[in-house]
Amino acid sequence: MARLLLQGRGVLVTGAAGGIGAAVARRLVRAGARPVLLDLTGERLDAVAAELGPAAVPAPADVRDRDQVVAAVDAACEVTGGLIGAVIGAGLVRPETLVAQTEADARNVVDVNFYGTLWAFQAAMPHIDRQGGHALALSSIAGIAPIPLSGVYPATKAAVDSIVATVRTEAMNRPSSAGVVYLSAVDTQMNRDVQSDARAARAAQHSVAFLTRAITADAVAKRIVRALERRSRVVTAPRWLAPSVWPQTLTRAIAEWFMGHTALREELPGGRESAQALTERAGTRGAPERDGGGPDGDDGLGDRDPDDLVARSEHRTTDPVDDGSGAA
After folding, report:
1. Of 114, 119, 121, 153, which is the active-site residue?
2. Is 153 among the residues known to form the active site?
3. Which of 86, 192, 255, 298 is the most buried (most CB within 10 A)?
4. pTM of the predicted model as reported, rounded to 2 decimal places
């Protein structure tokens, strides 16, 4: 697929008032894009919007409320003319062991991390599909290798990964695509909240430094915007995380390839239209004066079953893992 051109195009950013979201929005403005800033109404969102100026489009909404998210995205698209991309990054963690986490905290984390991601995809993808764009969602290394004292957070990030894989597979007949960003510790307020937990702080003091050292939000944002432009299916930050995601990335790529060669592909959005177009093109390969498009009035397909053409249609390439190194 061709690289995305962000100049003058709308890009949804959820969690836009947070550390990573705001940094991504700044990078998008530098790239000439129009970030749609989706976050809770309040001073933090107002401050980011004021900093970025008229290029940014505030879209106040609670990511836990589907109706609010859809309405905010639709309204913002009236201003930007649609969406070429999305960076879905609203997230929350409440430090605690899984079995001891309160119901209120568990439900809040699930609502923000899981449902917030789901509602954002549902709101954004119809707009992104019209422009053949790309969506990225922020996951975590905790979704692959669960980190203790994180409560339900690792489970929700594993779910985010699964959401992205499903969206990507279901869009195989469409011009849009999706990818996932795996993060380690990032220097944001959320990370500082985790470190304020005495147990986490003590553990960090006795851990290997490079494993716990937080990278800056701007460094993450730089990689995210580059991954958006390159339509990366996977990006890691920091780059040393890349080997840890290779097995899962390979498994997902094989599953996606397999699905592209089954009859299920035709049932996905755009599948029947693609099959019909292929059949129509095949039917016009014969002599034009013949009614059937082929010799003796046949259908121009010979002995081939039109359904076989579906399996032979092009399907997306498997993008490389973007480890932040800048290599293609």
Report:
1. 153
2. yes
3. 86
4. 0.81
